[in-house]
Automatic annotation (TrEMBL):
Gene3D superfamilies in alphabetical order: 1.10.287.130, 6.10.340.10, Histidine kinase-like ATPase, C-terminal domain
Matches recorded under CDD domains: HATPase, HisKA
EC number per UniProt: 2.7.13.3
Annotated source species: Pontibacter indicus
Domain Histidine kinase: residue ranges: 1004-1216
Source organism phylogeny: Bacteria, Pseudomonadati, Bacteroidota, Cytophagia, Cytophagales
Protein name: histidine kinase
Entry-linked Pfam families: HATPase_c, HisKA
Domain HAMP: from-to ranges: 935-987
Molecular function as annotated in GO: ATP binding; phosphorelay sensor kinase activity
This protein's UniProt keywords: ATP-binding, Kinase, Membrane, Nucleotide-binding, Phosphoprotein, Transferase, Transmembrane, Transmembrane helix, Two-component regulatory system
Length: 1217
């Protein structure tokens, strides 16, 4: 409610105060910058008074864009990206704000003798277009995030920014926008707090049910509340409705109503992870696996098939998730195209990891279900079922959509591995199975992501190639013609400012051209090179006094022919016979200059080179987001009647393309791959066939994306594991891996860490070598251009600008580089790429650092790091000297390498992807090898452990056979020597133990025999006395005493029988058995809900031990029977049976009752033979149990509390895998 109030009912006073605060911040920032700039100008003036102009000395003292004029002539500049009017220097003598075609600046003048220093502080940059590398707008260092418009006039009603002396600079118009420190952030904070409180409330309400063991109700309630809240955010478009953050901006990612932004996608993925956790939680609490354990074989087969299909569905959802991200986001997520890790790419990859976490939770439960179901099925039947499902789904994919084939293959391999591991689960310990399963899921998700990206790439590539062929073969551009006639021509001819500028006497041709190209030509014409010519009413050019310049009549005569005419007047489409598939438009626009007088503006539009290696700078490309496949070399060839008529690009169609491919239909559907190239054929309506060729995108690229995702997910997994350990340190202390796991971990880290270090060092060394080679190639190319321009043939044409321009353009075309020529004063003369200067990205002044190095320090060349907009690039500057005479400097050569960063990135991409591929393959191989290596290394130890378990003093002990002379061999030899010693001492030791045991047994039996003998003796003595005294009731006494004697004799007989049974008990037979299954057997015998309540907690996974199964079942039966009988008659017996695994070495069974407990005075006698608290008991059961359990290497004990009950514990060592 508070958020809605602030959003829809913001008090005017609050908003006004907020804007005033923002205006104060802006004023303070501007005044601070002016103060620094003034101090810098004063220091610069002092330097100018002391010494002559020296760029080298002055550049170290200037940090703001500074321009120094002497007698109206520019003599120094510190920045070549800020663009002043070079011909008309500022005339203001006080601080003022100016606006030109390139932006808005605060200019601070400073006079020092004959020098006038102007320091520029940029307020707003205006490139006139929006490209990837161009960011027009207010300077964030001054205005922050404020949405304002700058007003240079002095309106009294708007907030004003002034100097510290009170001079007006500019006004700030907020319009309908918000201030930088407005209420948007407050609303966002309130929304976040409300979200946190709602989630906390949902969790608290859910826990209320969970504490009462109503698990399903609690989880369903939690999910309903969270899903409802998520739907409310979607329908209300929150939080983007409140504050336009990039995270929730649809321009960065927009898929559908459910995922309109990256932030919404993140919320959806978090909700998916919550659902996966909830399903896993319910699966565990409701003991779903116990239901599947009771399935008969027929029902198990159906359930297994459904389980497999569910995973295929989950994998298909994951595939669509990846495809949606690649398709709906402009981010370059293909590691083969971009290695730049910007923050939103990291967000996307993190969301992929979270989706993988959700998949792992679902997949683990599905694998657990399959593991249970396989116990009732034959060995080969699951594989037959999997093969049948895979075949059916493959047929469906071939019929409807072949893009699902990789998904089916990945899912089939996953289930094959799961089935194989389940059938051999005894060979792998549970912790290591979980460890391998996590990496299996990561591999499955990474492979799915790589396959999805490959599918998306192929789809986009085919669409792009088809559009490329359509644009190439299209005779005319219908939309361009319509826009030129109905929009551009009308607006240009009616523009009053253009009319005024063309009337003279001074014709500002540059202003007119810039206004037309920036305001009247829409973005659609970005794919055309635009050249604008101006003519007066007599048809004479208004731009140059050059007599060789073509007149309007000459242009009409050359181009305005019937062959070139279009359906629109004064619009001509010119075809070049040398390049039959290029497009060149000529549009004549009449501009009224007075009564019956018309000037003419000629628009010459030529289609830009469509190849990706065009010389058009990347930052001026017409696309907002460059398609990834355009980084490849693209070539095309045109065939007519099977004969090559024209080709463009590096691919040699005459030599390397098989013309027989033209007759194959596959070439026109999906394209064909041959020798590392992908060809797609497109048939046109006019007859010719276009073959478009790009580099093949194949297995190496798929492996690179798989490797990157695999390593990224693995890194995220390690981070999550470390956080878990930090938050649960007690779990780390409880972690006790076995020897096999230690070997695997040590081998993994011992091999992978050096491999990682070697990869990093190699990458850094090769990167340095790449940079060095790249710079060396730039210098060689620059020297070649310098050699051409220094020849007399070039120097002769320097006074003629048009001839010089043609000369520079031809050299630039031959060298495949952009070339700019500056005069000796550092001003631009001609350039092969005028667009970069006309658009305002660079001024027509040379880089001052290059001027200082070459002109003052006599450098032979200088390579500088420069930037235009947001694009960083290298620029090489060389001196222009006639015949390379070092004493003469007539100009400078500037060669910007706009693709330098891209070229280095391509080299680094190749290096990094290769390193990742090797690292990932080695990582996976080592995981597999360490598994087998650990098993091979621990086989002797497992064999030794098995023999030690079987070693006894009564049975026959076999020696171990091991041929190795290593540490294990030493251990085996010591074991064999121990057996020899044991055999020697076994007889003596057995006799001593038997004697001790018999003495103890004799003492116990004697004690037990004395108990009935005493009443027998007393009875007989009493009878003798009665007979001697001739008691009248002697006969009755004889009868009573005889019954007493018979009872006591029976007791003696039972003692003898129990003693005989105990001494003749067979030796236990140790065998591999499932402790949980034995416990189930014993519990089933005592399950009677009417008389006894039992609560059973047994793990889903089998718990394997080495013991005598029959003895353990008898032991459990005895303990259960004792527990039931120990409960008083007034209580209903409640028996709790639990089996759990302590660490990785021990299984613990507990059987607890709610009986009367065991009195303290007899607790030490519980396991003594023939001792019993029951009148009819023999007292031998617990003694037998104790002997059998200890024989298996285990322990048995109890904990009791009188009046509350007793718990018996049995601990047995786990069997080695």
């Amino acid at each position: 409610m508070a958020t809605a109030f602030l959003h829809y009912r913001v008090p005017v006073a609050w908003l006004q105060a907020d804007r005033e605060k923002t205006q104060q911040h802006i004023s303070q920032r501007v005044q601070a910058l002016l103060s620094d700039a003034h101090q810098e100008a004063v220091q610069l003036g002092d330097q100018l008074q002391k010494d002559r102009i020296s760029f080298t000395k002055l550049l170290s003292k200037t940090h703001y864009p500074t321009f120094v004029y002497k007698n109206g002539r520019l003599v120094y500049w510190s920045d070549h990206t800020v663009i002043p009017d070079l011909d008309l220097p500022p005339t203001s003598h006080s601080i003022s704000t100016i606006r030109n075609s390139y932006g808005t600046f605060v200019v601070m003048p400073h006079q020092v003798s004959e020098y006038r220093i102007y320091t520029y502080i940029p307020l707003q940059i205006d490139y006139g277009t929006t490209k990837d590398f161009l960011s027009s707008g207010l300077q964030k260092s001054i205005f922050g995030k404020a949405d304002v418009r700058l007003v240079l006039e002095n309106p009294g009603q708007l907030p004003q920014v002034k100097t510290s002396e009170g001079e007006f600079l500019f006004a700030v118009d907020y319009g309908s926008g918000r201030a930088d420190v407005g209420f948007d952030q407050i609303q966002l904070v309130l929304l976040i707090l409300g979200t946190i409180f709602f989630v906390w409330f949902s969790i608290s309400w859910s826990r209320y049910f969970l504490r009462r063991q109503r698990y399903t109700a609690g989880i369903v309630l939690l999910l309903v509340l969270l899903v409802g809240f998520r739907l409310a955010l979607l329908f209300l478009n929150l939080p983007f409705l409140i504050v336009e953050t990039e995270l929730f901006d649809p321009r960065l990612y927009a898929a559908s109503f459910w995922s309109p932004s990256v932030g919404d996608l993140a919320l959806n993925v978090l909700l998916l992870v919550t659902v996966a956790w909830a399903a896993s939680y319910l699966f565990h609490k409701n003991e779903v696996l116990n239901t599947f354990k009771a399935y008969p074989p027929k029902k198990s087969k159906v359930a297994l098939g459904i389980t497999m299909l569910v995973f295929f569905v989950l994998l298909a959802v994951l595939f669509r998730f990846y495809y949606g991200i690649y398709h709906n986001s402009p981010l370059a997520l293909d590691i083969n195209q971009s290695i730049e890790m910007e923050r939103y790419k990291l967000v996307m990859y993190t969301l992929m990891f979270l989706h993988t976490v959700a998949l792992s939770l679902f997949a683990y439960k599905l694998a657990s279900v399959a593991n249970v179901l396989l116990r009732r099925l034959s060995e080969w039947w699951p594989y037959q079922l999997l093969l049948g499902i895979a075949v059916v789904l493959t047929v469906l994919a071939l019929v409807f959509d072949m893009r699902w084939i990789p998904v089916l293959l990945i899912g089939t391999v996953f289930w094959a591995i799961v089935l194989l591991a389940a059938q051999h689960r005894q060979a792998i310990s549970l912790p290591y199975r979980t460890y391998l399963f996590l990496f299996l899921i990561i591999a499955v998700s990474s492979l799915t992501g790589a396959a999805s990206l490959y599918t998306h790439f192929q789809s986009e590539l085919l669409a792009y190639k088809q559009k490329f062929a359509f644009d190439l073969m299209q005779g005319n551009d219908v939309l361009a013609e319509y826009l030129l006639e109905e929009d551009v021509a009308v607006r240009v001819s009616e523009d009053v400012l253009i009319q005024t500028k063309m009337k003279g006497p001074y014709v500002d041709a540059f202003f007119i051209k810039r206004k037309i190209s920036r305001q009247f030509l829409p973005d659609y014409f970005d794919k055309y090179e635009a050249n604008i010519l101006l003519f007066d009413s007599q048809g004479r050019t208004l731009e140059s006094a050059d007599t060789t310049a073509a007149t309007l009549d000459e242009l009409r005569k050359k181009y305005a022919t019937a062959h070139n005419k279009t359906e629109y007047d004064n619009l001509y489409l010119v075809n070049d016979p040398a390049r039959p598939h290029t497009r060149f438009y000529l549009k004549l626009i009449e501009v009224p200059l007075g009564t019956q007088l018309y000037g003419t503006i000629v628009l010459q539009l030529s289609l830009k080179e469509l190849l990706p290696n065009s010389l058009v700078p990347e930052l001026l490309a017409g696309q907002q987001h460059q398609q990834p496949f355009q980084a490849d070399i693209l070539s095309y060839g045109i065939y007519e009647k099977g004969r090559l008529t024209y080709s463009e690009g590096e691919f040699d169609y005459a030599t390397n393309f098989d013309r027989s491919e033209l007759g194959k239909s596959e070439l026109y559907r999906q394209g064909s791959t041959e020798e590392g190239f992908h060809h797609l054929g497109v048939k046109t309506d006019s007859g010719p066939t276009v073959i478009i060729t790009t580099n093949k995108y194949g297995a190496r690229e798929v492996l690179s994306n798989f490797s990157f995702l695999f390593l990224f997910f693995t890194g995220c997994l390690i981070v999550v594991a470390l956080l878990y350990v930090l938050l649960n340190r007690e779990r780390l202390r409880d972690f006790q891996p076995n020897f096999s796991t230690k070997i695997q971990l040590f081998l993994n880290f011992g091999i992978l860490l050096p491999l990682m270090l070697v990869s990093i060092v190699t990458a850094s060394l090769v990167t340095g070598s790449y940079k060095k080679d790249l710079l060396s190639s730039y210098e060689k190319k620059g020297e070649a251009i310098q050699d051409h321009l220094s020849r007399p043939t070039t120097l002769e044409v320097m006074p003629d600008r048009n001839r010089l321009l043609r000369r520079v353009a031809s050299i630039a075309a031959l060298s495949e580089a952009d070339v700019s020529l500056y005069d000796r004063n550092g001003r631009l003369m001609v350039t092969s790429q005028p667009l970069i200067f006309e658009s305002g990205l660079l001024s027509k002044l040379i880089n001052p650092n290059a001027f200082a190095a070459i002109s003052e320090r006599q450098a032979l060349r200088v390579l500088l790091d420069e930037h235009a907009g947001n694009l960083n690039f290298n620029a090489l500057y060389l001196p222009l000297r006639p015949d390379n005479d070092p004493e003469k400097l007539i100009g400078f050569i500037g060669i910007p390498f706009f693709d330098s960063e891209r070229q280095l990135d391509l080299k680094l991409i190749e290096l990094i992807t290769t390193t990742m591929n090797i690292f990932t393959v080695m990582f996976i191989v080592f995981i597999i090898l360490t598994f087998f290596a650990s098993r091979a290394l621990t086989v002797p130890l497992r064999m030794l452990a098995d023999k030690l378990k079987r070693t006894s003093l009564t049975g026959k002990n076999e020696m171990l056979a091991y041929e190795g002379a290593d540490e294990i061999g030493m251990l085996v030899n010591e074991y064999n020597r121990m057996l020899l010693t044991l055999e020697q001492n076994k007889v003596e030791l057995a006799m001593r133990e038997k004697e001790a045991a018999w003495r103890e047994m004799a003492r116990q039996v004697a004690h037990e025999i004395k108990n009935p003998l005493t009443p027998m003796k007393l009875s007989l003595q009493y009878l003798q006395k009665a007979i001697a005294e001739k008691n009248p009731n002697t006969e009755q006494m004889i009868n009573k005493i005889s019954h007493t004697l018979i009872t006591q004799i029976n007791i003696l007989s039972d003692i003898a029988t129990s003693f005989s049974n105990f001494t003749s008990m067979p030796e236990p037979k140790a065998e591999l058995m499932d402790l949980g299954a034995a416990l189930h057997k014993a519990v089933d015998l005592h399950t009677n809900p009417a008389s006894v309540r039992t609560k059973l907690r047994i793990p889903e996974e089998p718990v394997m031990v080495m013991a005598d199964e029959a003895l353990l079942v008898r032991t459990f039966n005895n303990l259960l029977l004792n527990a039931i009988q120990a409960v008083p008659a007034e209580r209903k017996p409640l028996i709790r049976i639990e089996l759990k695994v302590n660490g990785s070495s021990e299984a613990l069974v507990s059987i607890a009752d709610n009986g009367s407990g065991i009195p303290a005075e007899i607790q030490h006698k519980v396991f003594i033979p023939n001792f019993s608290t029951k009148y009819t008991g023999s007292g031998i059961g617990l003694a037998v149990a104790k002997k059998g359990i200890e024989n298996a290497g285990g322990r048995i004990w109890f904990v009791t509390e009188e009046g509350e009950g007793t718990t018996f514990y049995i601990a047995l060592p786990l069997a080695s895998p």
